[in-house]
Amino acid sequence: xxxxxxxxxRSKPVRPDLDQLFALPSAAxxxxxxxxxxxxxxxxxxxxxxxxxxxxxLRKDVEDLLDADTDRGGVPVEFSRxxxxxxxxxxxxxxxxxxxxxxxxxxxxxGLQDSGFGPQLLCSLMGFRDPEGRTLALVYLYKRGTFYPFxxxxxxxxxxxxxLELQIRSLLTDDxxxxxxxxxxxxxxxxPGL
Length: 194
Hints:
Layout: H1 3-8, H2 24-35, E1 38-48, H3 53-66, E2 78-81, E3 86-92, H4 98-117, E4 121-129, E5 135-141, E6 146-150, H5 162-172
Antiparallel strand pairs: 1-3, 1-4, 2-3, 4-5, 5-6
Helix pairs in contact: 3-4
InterPro entries: PspAB-like
């Protein structure tokens, strides 16, 4: 970081640390013990699509890799596009196997990053539900290397349960690198895996 960066208030961007995703199984145990939220077995990766053969081949390779267990009863991955034009990849594993789900999410992120598509990665999330039916996602911001909780209110309205999000933040501070800037806790309405 140079002298002008300091004067103008610019900071050096945080390098993504995909290994932070491996903290999710521990966070899942803390969530269940402290707030009653259990994993749904669903998680997703969001990225900006790029046109071209190299990206399409990578997408097919990732799909083939994650679909390899479908002959043993696994569920194939699904791709979808949201209203903003971003692509979502939904991965599923048994709810009690968060490590396998995290491995899938890590493989997708790593594949995109290692192939030069890291700048297209936006976030990854893992879904949770409590006995009352409330949903929660732990969202990993690729470009920040941090997590935040996202808790939409039930009923299809685009409102969040801010009190629950703050409670979860406090609960997981020892398990995950939590995003401190609340303005970066972006809503991911209708995200696959939520």
